[in-house]
Amino acid sequence: MRVPEALEALMREALGEAELAPETGDLPIGALVVDAGGRILGRGRNRREADADPTAHAEILAIREASAALGSSRLDGMTLVTTLEPCAMCAGAALTARIGRVVFGAWDDKAGAAGSRYDLLRDRRLPLAAEVVGGVLEEECAAPLRAFFRDSP
């Protein structure tokens, strides 16, 4: 499947956020929330260690920033772009925010909830669902994570 250049450009923006996370000892994961026109409304990078907050995942922070920018908890028609497949918490937050599409880079075989380990975003038993586009710039998104774990004590 050929990924549109616009999605690759957004993923590179998310990668830019991810590059900043290790400065605070956090996993190099970045995320964006964008509107239908491609305007970035929210940015996030992992800050679990920096903020001593287990919920400070990149996706959650991007969703919070976008919601604040719009003054609404509903992000209908928005796209979440993240460098790593969302976990169950982040997938649940995306659904609760009514994000329509989730685009991610690297797959997470350990905790992914967008098709690898679980598939919460498309689970027909839930009242909401989102379109999922996985593997966008997969290698570029996986490389910083591998380096982080390789270089960690």
What is the average per-residue confidence, as pLDDT, rounded to a whole number?
A: 95
Structural class computed from helices and strand pairing: alpha/beta
What oligomeric state do these chains adopt?
A: single chain
- Given as residue ranges, the uncertain stretches (5+ residues, pLDDT < 50) are none
Head-to-tail CA distance between termini: 38 Å
- Count of discrete alpha- or pi-helical segments spanning 4 or more residues: 5
Helix content: 25-40%
Q: Main β-sheet: number of strands, strand sense, barrel status?
A: 5 strands, mixed
The SSE order reads HEEHHEHEEH
Largest sheet: spatial strand order: 2-1-3-4-5
Radius of gyration: 14 Å
* Approximate strand percentage: 15-25%
- 3D shape: globular
Beta strands, count: 5
Describe how the helices and strands are arranged.
Blueprint: H1 5-20, E1 30-34, E2 40-45, H2 48-51, H3 58-70, E3 79-84, H4 88-96, E4 101-106, E5 131-133, H5 138-151
Parallel strand pairs: 3-4, 4-5
Antiparallel strand pairs: 1-2, 1-3
